[in-house]
Specification:
Low-confidence stretches of chain B: 3-19
Helix content of chain A: 25-40%
Mean pLDDT of chain A: 94
Radius of gyration of chain B: 26 Å
Radius of gyration of chain A: 18 Å
Number of strands of chain B: 18
Shape of chain A: globular
Largest sheet of chain A: 9 strands, mixed
Strand content of chain B: 5-15%
Distance between the termini of chain B: 51 Å
Number of strands of chain A: 11
Structural class of chain B: alpha/beta
Mean pLDDT of chain B: 93
Number of domains of chain A: 1
CATH topology of chain A: TIM Barrel
CATH class of chain A: Alpha Beta
Oligomer: heterodimer
Shape of chain B: globular
Low-confidence stretches of chain A: none
Distance between the termini of chain A: 32 Å
Largest sheet of chain B: 5 strands, mixed
Structural class of chain A: alpha/beta
Strand order of the largest sheet of chain A: 5-1-2-6-7-8-9-10-11
Helix content of chain B: 40-55%
CATH superfamily of chain A: Aldolase class I
Chain lengths: 264, 746
């Protein structure tokens, strides 16, 4: 997409939004408005939002349009409507995706506007962004929701299709700056929930001085019907929706980790 | 004392008593004969004679497990404010139908015909209807609101009244008798004599219960637990015949039996009235909190057996309480009793304000979170000011506001605010559309179209105000409601019955239905017809008349138009416009109808579904026969922008221009579990921004669907329908679907 220039430095006036969810209860602290930006450079094997992957507006086979061009101030008009709820709950705005930083200039515009409005901002990111840009966003982000998708770079390559080079650098940045962060862990039974994964997660958690919590996000297949709608083949994932016992087991892996661990 | 065929048991889902006799209608004919003998007596004497005849025949003996005496089985013909019908009542329509369809044959049919013939001209409802002048007959031609299409209908009843039991409990029956003598302008007049006679009826009912219990105690049929409980009740009843109550249990007993005799269905501020008795017993160590809770459970089960649907309002908490600390102790135990009983009655409600003991609100969330649908929450920080403005009352008076059964606001001991008319806004809109198609010159702009609609609403609202006053007048001339007048402020001193100049504020209410269906339809008409010229009014009408047959694209376009409940400016502004118009129209007609207040209530029982059955397709995309929107709420399932957007929309409708509206909210169980802090913050922000009321159902979609598949397993599942709660499995299928379609906030 071609972002429209705007008055704010390094900001775009418009971007492509594929959803705005108000009263989101699972995307950061308190009651939040989650703004989902379209487009993602990753191709996670378990992706439950296939309509978020491509950067352009799509029309599903059922006629549904995925994505719309919105102005940053227009998005903020919606976000600010729930200020009272943010204040009472310690909530705010969460920018999510796709990978929201992939629409870097628009993502930045939203963060700048949130700062102006004194609205708490979370950035829900895979961390796959040029480190200079990642660092440039830092003053605008109140809390990172940072994905932890696989145990190591091979795992990332295999399960998401990308190199972890930037992710590693950006995590190191968060370690160094002790930025407030929650690790978000999509867990897919038999795919990435290996002993190595939990070992790596514990090690990563230890290194992040600003770590506030770990959110385990168990795999679900609710998004599967959307694959057909956007004309994509369903990934051949040898897994199943985890049961309660499995979830308990995962939580046990995090015993003694020293921060809050939640099950999404 | 009678033994009705149908005695409710714990397993019964709907213990609504109806009296069935071995000799069908013999009691009703005897009642009729008695009425014939006293027909020409003065109203107070006639009423006294008829309640004296009625109560010995309709009281039901104590049932196993009861800790208090007081059950009633309603006959077909009765005297009272609303239980069977208004004043002297007989269900002519039902009897005629059942004779016609062969339910009654032979002698029974003959007896039923005799009842119909006698009561048709004499029952109070007929007299009210006959008093309508021609112009009212024309605007309100039918009484059959649940079976016919129509714009507005009268309702026959005297509801919307609640009194304080404080005087009764402080003085007892003996003390009340002295008050009658001391304070009546004419201590020997007909009304004062009527009061004495009514108290005599109450005493003799107590004696009957006492005798019945003592007789049963000599037998061997009672369990040990029941023997002990019943013996206690007999002693209490003996005491209460002459003395004021001295214990919490006696106070509960007196309050309950008096309520049954008064025929009231709602109970004022019971925490204020019973709290001091409770506190004293607890402090003296003669009662434990556990025993008090169990007693309240029993009282609440009796309320449940008395009326299982729309009423039984028990209010706790709030501003303006004299014995706040004691009342708070009652409030917490009452909530615990509701939690344990898990019944859809009574409608326990909590008024709360900043600075109130926080334990009450916390307990309320616990009980709501357990899926009880109670207590219903009222924010006094807002509600008191709303009542002041809407009713034009000072703060001191407004502090004693209470919601009636479905949520109509009235003033404890000082006002009567019966809803005596209902109005179907989408039906009016559809008829406006038909008119505009015929007279297009009068609807050239949207504002002109809206004006046509508004003028019709106003004319019908004015009719409602006059119907209200006529009903009050006719009923006031017919009977004074002795038990009620005796405890209501002013009646005793003025020497007048409730509705013949006794009550301080003569208020009235009109129940509006389908407000949001109507406003969403108007939004669509404004945008699609007037702004975008996508189709004409005539094309729209044609599609609606055909219930969108061959007009699916048009329907989908209407469905895509903005809808209330999404914090959308266009849809919410229209909802405000509809809301203000109908609310202000009502209040503008109070004076000319000689009422102190006439206000709209947007409360909803399930009339949104019943009226919907006979309302054609509407321009919001709703199909013919589907439910209308519920109360102030978005059309079911149309609020799709998140809970905060839904709440923001609700907050845009002013709450100080009417006599109550209800906000139904359906929340997922997780919000009362791990997300409880978020729920508290959500509601906190809602209250802070001016939210006045919330009725919360906690349920998952999965459970509702399972309950529709296997009702036998889901008897416990409680949902808020509109202005009342029900067991989900007892609802008609279309009501179930309406509830299922409402947005679940997660």
């Amino acid at each position: 997409m071609n972002p429209t220039p705007c008055d704010l430095p390094e900001c775009a006036e418009t971007g492509i939004v594929f959803d705005i969810q108000r009263a989101a209860m699972r995307d950061g602290p308190g009651i939040r408005t989650a703004v989902f930006l379209k487009g993602c450079p990753l191709r996670c094997a378990w992706c439950h939002n296939p309509e978020s992957q491509r950067f352009e507006i799509q029309t599903g086979k059922g006629g549904k349009r995925y994505g719309q061009v919105m102005r940053a101030d227009e998005v903020m008009q919606t976000v600010t409507r729930d200020r009272a709820y943010y204040e009472s709950s310690g909530g705010g705005m969460t920018i999510s995706g796709g990978e929201p930083t992939a629409q870097y200039a628009f993502c930045r515009a939203l963060l700048v506007l949130a700062k102006k409005e004194a609205i708490h901002a979370c950035l829900d990111t895979s961390g796959h962004l040029e480190p200079e840009r990642f660092a440039a966003l830092a003053p605008l982000v109140d809390l990172y929701l940072f994905d932890f998708k696989a145990a190591d770079s091979d795992g990332y390559k295999c399960l998401t299709g990308i190199s972890t080079k930037w992710i590693q650098t950006n995590l190191a940045f968060l370690e160094k700056t002790a930025a407030p962060v929650r690790l978000r862990c999509p867990l897919v039974p038999g795919v990435n929930d290996t002993p190595e994964y939990f070992t790596a997660l514990r090690a990563q958690a230890k290194r992040l001085k600003g770590l506030q919590g770990i959110d385990l996000l168990p795999y679900h297949d609710i998004g599967n019907t959307k694959y057909a709608d956007v004309g994509m083949p369903l990934p051949d994932l040898k897994t199943k929706t985890p049961d309660e016992e499995q979830k308990e087991h995962w939580l046990k892996e995090l015993d003694g980790i020293g921060v809050e661990a939640t099950m999404g | 004392m009678i033994s009705p065929r149908h005695i409710a048991t714990q397993a019964d889902l709907s213990p609504f008593y109806t009296r069935e006799y071995p000799q069908l209608f013999d009691y009703e004919l005897a009642f009729t004969q008695r009425y014939r003998a006293v027909e020409n007596e003065p109203p107070a004497a006639r009423e006294a004679a008829m309640v004296a005849f009625q109560f010995p025949h309709i009281l039901v003996p104590m049932q196993p497990g009861d800790l208090l005496a007081g059950r009633i089985a309603y006959p077909k013909v009765a005297v009272g404010p609303q239980a069977v019908g208004v004043g002297y009542s007989c269900p002519i329509r039902e009897l005629t139908r059942d004779v016609g369809n062969g339910k009654y044959t032979g002698q029974s049919a003959e007896k039923a015909r005799a009842l119909i013939e006698f009561w048709q001209p004499r029952r109070t409802q007929t007299k009210v209807r006959e008093a309508f002048p021609a112009w009212l007959q024309e605007l309100m031609p039918s009484d059959e609101w649940a079976w016919e299409a129509g714009e507005t209908f009268p309702l026959y009843r005297i509801a919307g009244l609640q009194f304080s039991y404080e005087t009764l409990l402080e003085l007892g029956i003996g003390g009340l008798r002295e008050q009658i003598a001391a304070r009546s302008p004419q201590p020997d007049g007909a009304l004062a004599q009527g009061f004495h006679a009514a108290l005599g009826v109450l005493v003799s009912s107590m004696r009957r219960y006492e005798q019945d219990i003592r007789a049963r105690l000599t037998g061997q049929t009672l369990s040990v637990a029941d023997r002990n409980a019943f013996a206690q009740v007999a002693d209490d009843l003996e005491h209460l015949q002459t003395k004021a109550p001295t214990s919490f249990r006696q106070a509960c007993q007196l309050m309950w039996l008096y309520s049954l005799h008064a025929g009231v269905w709602n109970y004022g501020r019971l925490d204020e009235d019973l709290g001091p008795f409770l506190a004293e017993d607890l402090d003296r160590g003669v009662l434990t909190e556990e025993a008090a809770t169990v007693l309240l459970q029993s009282l609440f089960k009796l309320m449940h057996a008395y009326d299982n649907r729309f009423d039984n309002r028990v209010m706790v908490g709030g501003k303006g309480r004299q014995y706040e600390e004691d009342a708070d102790r009652f409030a917490v135990l009452a909530m615990e009793a509701v939690l344990r009983n898990r019944l859809n009655q009574p409608q326990l409600s909590l008024r709360f304000y900043e600075g109130q003991n926080p334990v009450l609100y916390e307990k309320a969330l616990e009980v709501i979170g357990a899926g009880c649908t109670f207590p219903i929450l009222y924010n006094d920080e807002r509600a008191v000011a709303d009542v002041m403005k809407a009713h034009g009352l000072d703060e001191q008076t407004a502090l004693q506001w209470l919601p009636y059964g479905c949520g109509e606001t009235m003033i404890l001991n000082q006002s009567v605010a019966t809803p005596n008319a209902i109005i179907n806004l989408p039906e009016i809109l559809n008829r406006t559309l038909a008119y505009a198609v015929k007279k297009p010159k009068q609807a050239k702009t949207f504002d002109a179209f809206f004006d046509l609609y508004a003028r019709r609403v106003d004319a019908l609202m004015r009719a409602g105000a006059f119907v209200q006053k006529i009903q009050y007048d006719v009923v006031g001339q017919t009977l004074p409601f002795l038990f009620i007048s005796l405890l209501y402020d002013d009646c005793l001193e003025r020497g007048r019955g409730l509705l013949e100049g006794g009550v301080r504020y003569l208020s009235g209410t009109n129940e509006t239905y389908g407000n949001i269906t109507c406003s969403d339809a108007l939004t669509a008409i404004k945008q699609r017809v007037y702004q975008k010229n996508k189709y004409t009014l005539a094309q729209l009408k044609k599609a609606l008349d055909a219930d969108f047959e061959n007009a699916q694209a048009l329907r989908e376009d209407l469905l895509r138009a903005p809808k209330f409940g999404n914090d959308n400016e266009a849809a919410d502004a229209m909802a405000r416009r509809v809301h203000e118009q109908v609310c202000l129209s009502a209040s503008s007609h109070a004076k000319e109808a000689r009422l102190d207040h006439y206000l709209v209530v947007i409360i909803n029982n399930w009339a949104n579904t019943l009226l919907g059955r006979f309302t054609g397709a509407t321009a919001d995309g709703r199909k013919q026969g589907e439910s209308l929107s519920n109360a102030n709420n978005p059309s079911a399932g149309m609020d799709r922008s998140g809970t905060t957007a839904f709440l923001n929309s609700l907050l845009k409708l002013d709450s100080d221009v009417h006599a109550g509206s209800v906000q139904n909210m359906k929340f997922a169980p997780s919000l009362f579990g791990r997300d409880l802090p978020r729920l508290k913050a959500l509601m906190g922000a809602y209250w802070k921004q001016g939210g006045s009321q919330a009725m919360i159902t906690v349920v998952s979609r999965k459970d509702l669907e399972a309950a529709m598949r296997e009702p036998e397993k889901w008897g416990h599942l409680m949902v808020r329908v509109g202005g009342f709660s029900m067991r989900f499995v007892e609802l008609d299928r279309d009501v179930q679907l309406d509830i299922l379609a409402r947005t679940l906030n997660e």
